[in-house]
Write a structure and sequence with these properties.
Elements: H1 2-11, H2 40-60, E1 69-80, H3 81-84, E2 86-97, E3 100-111, E4 118-125, H4 145-150, E5 154-159, H5 160-163, H6 191-206, E6 212-222, H7 224-235, E7 241-245, H8 263-269, H9 292-297, E8 304-309, H10 317-333, E9 356-361, H11 369-382
Parallel strand pairs: 4-5, 4-6, 6-7, 7-8, 8-9
Antiparallel strand pairs: 1-2, 2-3, 3-5
Helix pairs in contact: 6-7
Bound molecules: beta-D-galactopyranuronic acid.
Length: about 375
């Protein structure tokens, strides 16, 4: 009987395009009182705040913005790391509120021999800490720091556990200790929100580091980290650009397609990621007042790059592309058309020369050198180096 239930649950995940239900996406440009937004001021003053609140209340939770103090301490520094090519700093960022504090551990490499300040890629690392080894004894495609440094960008990372342990029993043990009231409310922040909050505190630090161009910080995340990267870019308009890799359900992919992972599945496997309110939409996507194209639209006019992998149908490559397509009307208000064609590009073909970038890489659910190389191309396109 138990096996039967397991099979039934596995089958409940659809991978057949023909079985995608008919759906209607909420109109990103239509206000709750039925008016059509036609220009930038109306978007920014009326509709954007409305959509942002819908995401906060229903999905990602509130984003507390106040704390008493943010200090930092460089705990390790190597000026000639990577054979002299980079300057390593390990920094502990401490955020204090009342009698409580939380530490964020940042690994940061800045390229030597380039004009400062430099733009930076910041990874929200949801996998092993060895992926961001400051000694570089261990190298990983997940964070190919040498490749990013060679391209003239700074490269930084923090681990999600500093924001919130990725565990349904202990997620409260990170920065939520500073905001216990969040745990008492159905629209309270949980782990994904805490990771996005942490990315913003790193950006606060970047504003104090004279080698970093804090107006050009690009937030990057893979999968659950890619969901947090999108939310960070939405919440904190200081992030210049967002890279969301294989972020799938409640990331860059449309929920209403019910292709691969669904809201029920994500809320069941990871009850500590999203608000209590989000559980109301289990098997009830149509009732959601938003869909994920609207999350991308909230990042406009800043560039967004989303990716998928061919063997990662769980994260719905097509649904990700459709999110970008359906975010376009908001970019158009800023006269930043993306010119995406209705059909996704061929496998391994990256859309770079566009405000909304995309590729579907051959292979499995992962963050790889191929992905990073295209992130760098996209950054070069939007922030061409002078001279
Ligand atoms: C899966 C989860 C996805 C994605 C992934 C990951 O188990 O269903 O939403 O977050 O983990 O983070 O690698």
């Amino acid at each position: 009987f138990a096996i039967f239930i397991l099979i039934a649950r596995a089958q409940a995940q659809n991978y057949d395009e023909a079985k995608v239900p008919a759906y209607t996406l909420p109109d990103v440009l239509k206000t709750s009182d039925g008016q059509l937004v036609k220009n930038k001021p109306d978007w920014e003053k009326k509709r954007r705040p409305e959509v942002l609140t819908l995401f906060e209340n229903n999905i990602y939770g509130q984003m507390p913005k106040t704390f008493d103090n943010l200090t930092y301490k460089v705990t390790n520094e190597v000026k000639d790391a990577m054979n002299g090519k980079a300057h390593l700093k390990e920094v502990t960022i401490t955020v204090t509120k009342g009698n409580k504090s939380a530490d964020i551990h940042l690994v940061l490499f800045t390229p030597n021999h380039v004009k400062k300040p430099v733009p930076a890629f910041l990874l929200i690392n949801n996998r092993g800490k060895e992926n961001t080894d400051p000694t570089r004894a261990t190298k990983s495609e997940f964070w190919p720091a040498e490749t990013v440094i060679e391209s003239g960008y700074a490269v930084a990372a923090f681990h999600v556990s500093d924001g919130a342990p990725d565990n349904k029993n202990t997620y409260q043990d990170g920065i939520l200790r500073l905001y216990p009231e969040q745990l008492e409310t159905d629209n309270g922040m949980k782990a994904i929100g805490a990771w996005a909050w942490t990315a913003s505190r790193v950006l606060d630090y970047f504003q104090k580091d004279k080698n970093i161009d804090a107006k050009k910080v690009f937030v990057v995340g893979h999968s659950r980290g890619g969901k947090a990267a999108l939310w960070a870019g939405v919440q904190d308009q200081r992030f210049a650009m967002v890279f969301s890799n294989c972020s799938g359900n409640t990331g860059a992919a449309l929920a209403r397609r019910r292709f691969g992972e669904t809201i029920t599945r994500i809320n069941t496997s990871f009850p500590h990621w999203f608000t209590n309110n989000y559980k109301k939409y289990n098997d009830n996507e149509a009732a959601l007042p938003v869909d994920q194209h609207m999350l991308i639209a909230l990042i406009a006019p800043r560039p967004v790059y989303a990716t998928n992998a061919t063997k990662d149908l769980w994260a719905d490559p097509k649904g990700t592309y459709l999110s970008l397509i359906n975010a376009q009307p908001v970019y158009a208000l800023y006269k930043k058309p993306s010119g995406l064609s209705p059909e996704p590009p061929a496998i391994n073909t990256a859309i770079i020369n566009s405000i909304l970038g995309y590729h579907n890489r051959e292979g499995i659910h992962n963050l790889t050198t191929f992905d990073w190389q295209n992130f760098i191309r996209f950054a070069n396109y939007h922030y061409p180096k002078k001279g």
